[in-house]
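TODO from last week: model Peptidase S9.
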Amino acid sequence: MVTLVPSKNLTTYSLQHRDYVQEAGDYDRSVQLLRTEPGVDPTRVGVYGESEGTWIAPVMATEDPAIAFTALVSAPVVRPREQAAFAVDNYLRNTGVPQGVFRAIPRAVGMDLPDGGLDYADFDVRPYLERLTRPTLVVYGDEDVSMPIEQGAQAILADASKAGNRDVTVRYYEGADHGLHLGGGDGAVSASFQQDLADWITGLPGTAGAAPQIAGAQPNQTYLAEAVPSPRWYGDGDAVFGFTIAAVSLAIGAPLVWMIVSFGTRRWRSRSHVGGMARDLRVPMLLASLGAVLTMLALVVYLVAIAKIALNYSQNALIVQGGWLGVRAIGIASLVPVAVVVNRLSDRREARRSMLLWLRERVGRDVPTGHSAVPGVRAGQPVARGIGGWALAAALTFAIVTLLLTTAYWGVFQLGI
């Protein structure tokens, strides 16, 4: 066999943008080149695609009917978004993450990233598989946890049959992972797979419909790769990233700006004071905003940590279980100053109400300024004073509410442990 391995054209391939149809056109030029090589039979040139490449190979075979065969190795078949959700789910189950974390998977995978990132996540290869008429070899390792190894093979068989294609051969290899390696990613590629692949290609067309159609190790796919619902507007990428960045910026930046401006204006008595928040609200508001930022930071650190554990397909109960409890503990602690603020605002409301009742009972009498039946709270005491004080209060309120709602959306405040 003569094999040509082209260099990937990165003008159509990046983390945010991938055009599989255009990539198929790029790779087909390599097919055309291979057909012109001395000693190569142009009528027997086929395409080998592995993993993500199996979204491209069927497009090539459909657009170029002269392609003699396709080999689809570790094929996801489903849309990239569905495959990602399936893989993440399997990886996290192996790490033993709490049940609450699983609820965040569809929300994370279903959202679109800002500026149209991951626009290829909904690419559908099934229409191309339905037009696949050439002999096809489908290969999976039975320990490939990132792919729907049973569902994918069934889908390829069903789609090819719509085009009247019965020349589909499915093989599973025991102990092989996604890259057909034995004993993990550092192991050697399965020799049985390499031999079978070579025998199938060199034996065409006689090997195209050889029995049995499905053979090898027994696959075990526990869950289906299913469609991922799109979250509502507040769970979309633009909203999540935009509100989070704005909230963190205000939580950190607003107090700093207020202190700089406040200390600066005190140096010139002729200039008006910038104002500030009420003393009984200032500290709990700052603590609440700090707690909300720390909760968000802890959540991000935790997700990055379990992602590394999951990708290594390992386990660490201290990080996975203990880390999640730590994130939730920080989140609950951040609610304490929030409760203090709410309680003191409620005292102000009660103070105003009691003052009105006092006035009604003593109509016509002298009324002491700021009288209140609530100890420690003056009825006329404002939440803030001056433009700077009200701006600081508004900024911190927005930051606290936004960050707490965001972390609640991702499961930090779910009931139960």
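Done. The longest helix spans residues 317-361.
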